[in-house]
Amino acid sequence: MKATHVTAAALALCAGLAACGSPTPGQPAAEGSGRGPITFLGGKFEAESVQKIVDAWNAAHPDEKATVVLLPESADEQRRKLIQNAQTKSDAGDVMLIDAVWTSEFAANRWVAELTLDTTGFLPNPVETGKYRGKLYAMPVFTGTGLLYYRTDLVKEPPKTWDEMKRICEEVLPKQTGMSCYGGQFDKYEGLTVNFSEAVASAGGELLDASGQPQLTGDAARQAARFLADGFKSGMIPKEAITYKEEEGRVAFQEGKLLFYRNWAYGYEAAQKTDGSSKVNGRFDVAPIPGLTGIGAGTLGGNNLAVSAFSKHKRTAQDFIAFMTSPEQIRAFARTSSMPVPLASIYDDPEMIKKYPYLPALKEGILAAKPRPKAVRYGDVTAAIQESAYAIVTGAKPVEQGLSELQAALGPLLK
Amino acid sequence: MLSPTMIVLALVVFYPLVAAMRESFYESGQRLDADGFVVEGEWFAGLANYAGVVQQRFLNAALNTTLFTVVTVALEVVLGVAMALVMRRAFRGRAFLRASILVPWAVPTAVAGLMWKWIFQADGVANALLGTEILWTADGPWAKLAVVVADVWKTSPFVGLLVLAGLQIIPAEVYEAARVDGATPRQTFWRVTLPLVKPALLVAVLFRLMDALRVFDLPYVMIGPRKQSVETLSGLIWDEATRVHYGPASAYGTALFLYIAVIAFVFVKLLGADLLSDVRARRKEAARDGA
Amino acid sequence: MARERVRARRFWGSAGMLGIALYCLVPFYWMVVSSFRRTADIHDKTPWPAPWSLESYGAVFAADMGFGRSLLNSFVVAGTTTLVTLAVGTLAAYALARLEFRGKNVVLALVIAVSMFPGALLIVPLLELFTTIGWINTYQAMIVPSMSFALPLTIWNLTTFFRQLPYDLEQAAMIDGCTPFAAFRRVMLPLAAPGVFTTAILAFIATWNEFIIAVTMVNDQARQPATVRIAQFTGAAQFDTPFGTQMAAGVLVTIPLVLLVLFFQRRIVAGLTAGALK
Hints:
The complex is a heterotrimer. By secondary structure, chain A is an alpha/beta fold. Chain A contains 16 helices and eleven strands. The N terminus of chain A is likely disordered. Chain C is mainly α. Chain C has a domain of 167 residues: Orthogonal Bundle (MetI-like fold). The longest helix of chain C is centred in the last third of the chain and has 35 residues.
């Protein structure tokens, strides 16, 4: 217990990055100093680019080497594993990559340590996802939001509103065969929460107001739910979209089965491929997603880096995060990977824009994007949203009933 | 002779089992202090965690589990016995047939789940072959069928192999005798083969029953969590545990345990005279045969 | 008339065989075909890959994945589990089938009680236990729990097998001067071989395919079995499930298993026949 206090004090003292200089190479790290070798728990995804950063760190810090340990690919499995480590107070992972929406839960359970890191130069919204009750517990490393993919060969100007989108579809679709208007992720999983809260935000509302109270009985929520429910009923959204996760829809868009598709930025590179896997290469572009009365607001995605509360080398761990999220490393990462990063300057860099032409649209999207509800019991919150949203989009429950049930279900979960 | 078994079981099963059952009476991790931190520790909760047992979600899952168990085990028994009979016959290409029957059981469940999901997805090969546009992986009756097809595929070989082993210890003379007596193949099967293979078949069915009642991975991987039409009790427990509701998860687990225990008990009592028959009875038989 | 009936029966027999083989193999065939497609045309529905590609297999054996090593781990864990389970389980089954003691049915009931509790709930307490005794990242942390799942089936199945075997054989052996253990080893065991062997196959495959315990107890990549490895494969982007790679890995995990079982089965059957002729 005493030791933890000392570490916490040491961390608190070490304000700002500059003060946190690591010991000079060659000098053995003293025991109990919070320094020493660390383990980085991450998925294999983007592993090559991440490994380069780790190699650069290891070259500069021979006494505080970082080892990458892979977690299973599925997000559920990763979460289970991290929670199990925390519950057994295991130091198997000093630094961990967590989904942005887990931050509150991990912080409230004291599974992750508070961070004293500089976030200057980062986009404000992603940084907000790393905070719990105003304090930083996780440093954003990947970010992103929903974009509207559309066919440039069929659509002159991307729609700004849902009505415009419908109108364009009514003009274009009769001349096409086997093509539907719009798709998103509507299977019963996290993606449905994303799409549903995106619709609500795009109608000018929010799932939760500033005080954290659910706002699902308002007009915005109703309009959003109607847009989705009517979309399915009228066939504007194809019925198989109820089984879509990111990839199923991406494939449908690439095969020319969708005129508009909501997806993350990663889909751009894949749809641009010329190896025959995409029938739409060179014939699509991305735009901010449409809304009820004007450009909509996306939902913020992304991953953050956190230090395990049970790490024996918390100072090294925090330095490692600072290193990984330093402008030089982020820029190097962005050059080899299309995964969007939270550093503002990347989005204005002409070299980067040339490489990833969607960056301006993405920046606009991220700045307008809304985070998903911040909740300690986020798992319960998202399950409740999925339950009602699935019933609404499949038509199993009328819009009003689904929303009022959700309002009632969320209340006690957000206390 | 039994002690090694007992040591292993005590270590890895009875301890966790008791721990999990204890958990079902406690509440933990659900309270926040004024600073927004989760209060550590646990509180005795009485039967509060068991409240969900009478609610719609649990009952729906119990119904799904029961239905799924009855249907799949019945199909697997029929198919498994057929497989065993086929594997037993000597003919050219028997090794190939045996290999093909082994394949489904040998494919890792997670990969099998993924493969079936792939086959059954909206633009998958199942719809292409059938010329249909069924949304197998969406919540609904088709999802049930998809899961049954996949599970029967995956586990029939288990029954097949156990029954085959049972067939192999039936002496050839018995069949010879039946043939001499002029029994038709159908008579031989019902009057000779089936009674003799009954103990092996019962063990297979018993273990399939217990496994099917705990099924979780195929519906979870193929259709997804929290889908009403295919959520099983184990799926519900898994879902609660992932959301760190260990109290309710343990309570549901204990309820499922009792349910399975009752079914297994009834099964053994009704059909399992051969499984638990007393040694003395056998010995008497032996003495009589010897006399 | 009778010949016609025989012919009809043959026909239905063959049709049944064919049906069974198709049901077992067609989904697997689709898995194999998918594993030979390029990532670019993984969504094709042609009955065979066009063009054929080893891209997925290349990804499975990429140097940094250590897939070969993980296959070896799977083999060690499944092999040890099977051998120990058989040794322990055969003894227990023999005792239960042949010896008289009070509370025998209670023992049998306790043994399967294990198979009645949902596995998901055993993981966390087990993880706590293994953390305390320092078993994390060890083979035994996978072997011992797998044994507890394989033992009940072994014991129950072999108990029924031993019970079915006629008693006088052992008695004859013992009269001939064999000790009870020798009688068991020389007479009973070979007779029960189909049962022993089948249980071994089932235990081996069940352990080989075990995922949840392994992923929970072993963080060290050098000790992870193949199933855990397969779950770590990723596609080009975050949401991209590497379907081709996973199918290729699935094929690679399945085929050796089937071949191994067939090989041993043949050897054992041959051994048995030889024994009977003596």
